[in-house]
User: What shape does this take?
Amino acid sequence: MLMERGVSAGVQHIRLQDVLRRAGLTTGAAYRLWADQNDYQRDLAVAMVRLRLSGPSDYARAAVEALIAEGASGDDVIRAAADAHVRGTAVDADNPTDALEAQQFLISLALRTTAQTWPELTDASRARHRESTASFAEFYAYLMQAYGMRMKSPLTVADFTEAMAAMGEGFAIRALEGIEHPRYEASETDDIPAGSWSLFALGVRALVNEFMVAADEHASDEPARDAMSAD
Assistant: This one.
């Protein structure tokens, strides 16, 4: 029911009596599980934050693995991974499976913004964040190895992952607000690389170029302007 309706000031609109009717359970059965409506809604919110329909970085890996195998440029990989994230915040996706993934992600994100409501929700939110950052840190390390990059001293992959998570979740909250994600069609005469770019992709590219350098460059060298643009 929460996946169908989305969030509305949390989970308060998912009434226990409605759930009981849909599940074919009695009120007595429910109150053997929860002392009151508040306890039930707390557990519902925690369960939703813990729910994962796929691995945290699965969508990003799926979007770029073929490109990497084909020797695509770093810019192409950035665009593909960023676009997968933008699609992942579109609840009206044409593919029902994608729409369900998007709904789950956005609902859990909305609930995480209210994590201080209950200690259990705070714990679940922090656990989800740890799982996600661990998965994405592994994914970014894989990309760095594929493109011969390393982190600039004293930065770490964990630092890059946290910055990426903050930006990605920020754009996802904009999607919850109904704000359309900006896109740009750059030509050869523009100051950004030619092609179709989402604003998120450009943000990722900027982070890559500020956080990373070619693995064979010394830490004291000038920052690589186009760190992942080379084939």
The longest helix spans residues 119-146.
